[in-house]
Amino acid sequence: MAYVAEKKNPLIVFFKYAVAVILTLLFVFPFYNMLVISLNDSADLVNGYPFFFPRVFSLKNYEAVFQSPLLGRAFLLSIARTVLSTILCLFFTGMLAYVLTRRNLLGKRFFNMLFIATMYVGGGLVPTYIQYRDLGLVNNFLVFVIPSALSVYYMIVMKSYFAGIPDSLEDAAKIDGCNDFSIYVRIYIPVSIPVFAAIGVYTAVGSWNSWWDNYIFANTQDLTTLQLLLVRMIKEADVVTTMGGGSMTNPAFANPMGVRMATTMVATVPILLVYPFFQRYFISGMTIGAVKE
Amino acid sequence: MKAKSGMGMQKILHSINQNKILYLMLIPCVVWIVLFAYVPMYGLLMAFKDYNPMLGVWDSPWVGLKHFEAFFNKDFWRVMRNTLLISGGNLLIGFPAPVFFALLISSLGQKHIRKTMQSLSYVPYFVSWVVVSSMCFLFFAPESGYINAFLRTVGITEGIGFLEDGPLFIVMMVLTNVWKGTGFSAIIYFSAITGVDAQLYEAAMIDGATPMQRIWHITIPSIMPTILVMLVLAISGILNAGFEQQMVMGNSMVWDWAEVIDTYSYRFGLSKLRYSYGTAIGLFKSVVALILLLGSNAIVKKKTGYSLYR
Predict the structure, then answer these.
(1) What whole-number distance in Å separates Cα of residue A116 and Cα of residue A177?
(2) Minimal CA separation from A247 to chain B, in Å
């Protein structure tokens, strides 16, 4: 291997690193700043928001958030919708991908078309709303999980992954008396963990972050998830009412920004916590889809 | 399919019987796609009718193109202006930004610094628009936002209405969108850049090419297929100027500028209960999107030989 040592202009190298560091700070500093404000005493925020460190440290904002009668429910709903929709989406999308990659399936091309066509033409928002209403999904928790139980796009990604699994695995299992369903559950799911994990991360993050399905299809107090609660808090100046009354005397309500930022952190931190563990999966998810398509 | 035309009924039945578990597994998926994709597609008929919930889609009276005419005669220009300004800005800044970012980060020598910067840059993609909006108030709010507070300390008391002034709000939409998406969109370019044959660089170095020349003559041509595919997708999505972003960040002061085609369809179709009108707007949008997708793909294919579909 030929290798040519090259003189680097130190000025250019410095400049490159400087730009890269500034850009990276631009991406993450706002999160840190929100944390700082949420940890600052609420009444003190009148003097301007602290930038790098809390001026007057206080956990009162978080106290107010966790005392809110609505927040606990919203948090549990967010968790429930995220977990359920991810499991359902992975199971059914994988099942469809499995069926559509079998060799001897009569009508395979027709079924392929039936699903893939829906990526290019769709009903749009209003007909979808009317259909959800007719199915009884409006103002029903199931609207968070059933319409997302299958994804044609992810089905294509999974199909391309399943195509790389040797048929001999299926044949051997059939000789042992397994039927197609148990082959899917006992063999295909375990050997496809990377692709399931990647798609699972995207589905889970999407479900956790989603608020507009909540806003449009299930806009009731009982079904308010964390994100919609936060939307209300941003849109309405009256934070005390949004949080369901609670302890009106809590000093945290002196300035709504403190409570707002604390709630924002509660909505963000779960994602940032799982982020390092799942990072490699979502990158692989991007490339699995991109390489094969 | 052609090969099977010679098969008798007997054989078809036998084949279905052989795979009956596969068909059983297919049933829930087919039911789902019919209920959640094909029935709403049938609902598109509403765009040509005056939908009456009492009568249902089929029995509501036909009105031809009335709703489309109403849209074109009234709000079309304003909504299209906003949609095209926002997605034009997204395309103009948001499309090249991840390419530059990926080129810049990949050119850094230190591997762990490169990796760290890369992973930090995706973080904004994984938080919701609600969180981004909450963040924007900190920086851009009229009184207390950092920028206006800073301007006051240097003597400019007349604050800038980032979130109150219509045209400025469009700039804010574009900037927040670029901020949120750049790191994530760069992933695809990072992996393309990693895939470039190292021998090409070595050969160029022997020939005395400067780092800039190597990027221009090797890296960029090598990742061009990826760039073009992303461009086709970006152009076909030009009417997707956002929905959540406007709904959560917009307010009555900027609504004349924040209104894009999706929010318009929602506000008229569902908030104001003009179901048929909202459906017509949605249909108009998906027809244009399909034409743009096929058109931009055909142009790129003709010019370069790359295609999204084979």
Answers:
(1) 33
(2) 23
